[in-house]
Give the backbone structure.
Amino acid sequence: MPRPTKLSPERGSARTRLLEAARDVIRAKGFAATSVDDLCRAADVTKGAFFHHFASKEALGVAAAEFWTKEVTPFFAAAPYHEPADALDRVLAYVAFRKAIIAGDLFEFTCLVGTMAQEVHASAPDIRDACGRSIFGHAATLEADIEQARQDRGITADWTAESLARHTQAVLQGGFVLAKAGNDPDLARESLDHLDRYIRHLFHVAEDLAA
């Protein structure tokens, strides 16, 4: 998902500051490499304050995934890709929007819940499940437009709106991994260009396939 803002200059509660710190530090360092001390230092709180709000680092991981979802939901709800009148245009505008917000340092545009899910899917199932709810929940926001686009264009192939919505997230998360592995944001942008072409192919938008 997107790149939320860095720590706010107007500091909130200790709990909020810890969640903001988790959002940024974990994306930069990974969950395993991020210590409670790292989070306390970034949030400017004591270790006692940390354990007042979170029973463990794993509990913070679950809360951070939920915090991330609460942050990104209104961000995407207000995004301009909802504006086109045509459903397929909205789907393609979503892909273009995701490409447009790939900017800044790697940690700023990569996804907290994707980062954590890759690390802890076997070792911390509560965090994994919270990350899954976030990723799959975001994918579900695309399903209505995809289904409407299928109906508008008479698509009867055996793929579903749900499966294509999930595939958009597979491409995004994979693009983020490639960008990290190659230390090059253009690798993520390239993946989204291919996603755009693939969606056009599924909907038989022949005149744009060579773009």
Q: What stands out?
A: The chain has one domain: 61-208.
